[in-house]
Each structure stands twice: as C-alpha cells, then as structure tokens.
Specification:
5 strands; alpha/beta; Rossmann fold; single chain
C-alpha cells in the first residue's frame, strides 16, 4: 500500500503540481484550506507526511502549522511547509513549530520530491524503531 501524503494549499496549481509529482509513489490527498484538512484528519485519517502552506484563506498565517505541530495526535507526523512568505519569517516560524523541512515558493519539484522521499523513509524507520521497543 502506498504511503499517504496530505497536501494543504489554497492554490489549485500547487495542489495539481504536487499531485502530479508525488502520485507515482504516494497516495496524495489534497485540501484547499485548513478547515477541510482538519475535518479530514478528525475522521481518524493519519497521513505519513503533511505538506502545508502557512497562509490559508480560512486561518491566520501559521495557525494550521501551529495546530498540527502542537497536537498530541498529529505532532509526530512530519510537516513540510511550502511558503510564499519571506525567508526569514519562514525560517523562524518553522524552527518555532518544529517543522521538518520547508521550501519557499517557487520551489524546484525535483528537490521537493527528494526531501519528501527522505521524510517518509525516516518516518517509516522511526515507526519501526518505536514499535519494536
């Protein structure tokens, strides 16, 4: 079974691009806003990776990232941020919220795919380690 990636971005073009580059190896679920994503997650869906834009139309900047990273349920899921904000703000906020990796828009899809593969592989290794102990 393919590993599952949740993509949360209000840009239809970004969601389509990520679906295109990731769907060969992953099951990609895409959501246009934070409320829809949180509703999907509340139905006991736990993806292997979350890719999120910190600027969503239905939430304050970084609100979704903060909710996910501080959650006892979702906080263990690797989070990759795709930000259209400036580099300094993105870097500070990602450190503050323990974000696994971030990319600034526009981003290189090949680089992003490589990082996604590494994050999912690390998640599988971590799960196996903790389940064995």
């Amino acid at each position: 079974m393919k590993k599952q990636i949740l993509v949360i971005d209000d840009s239809k073009a970004i969601r389509f691009l990520l679906q295109t580059i990731l769907s060969k190896d992953y099951q990609v679920i895409s959501m246009p806003d934070g409320c829809t994503a949180m509703y999907w997650l509340s139905k006991k869906n736990l993806p292997d990776l979350i890719i999120a834009d910190p600027q969503l139309p239905d939430m304050e900047n970084w609100e979704l990232v903060e909710q996910l990273s501080s959650s006892g349920i979702y906080g263990h899921i690797p989070l990759l941020v795709l930000s259209g904000l400036d580099n300094e703000e993105t870097q500070v906020k990602c450190l503050e919220h323990s974000v696994s990796k971030y990319f600034l828009k526009p981003f290189n899809p090949v680089d992003l795919l490589s990082v996604v593969n590494n994050l999912v592989r690390k998640q599988v290794i971590d799960k196996n380690f903790f389940n064995a102990n």
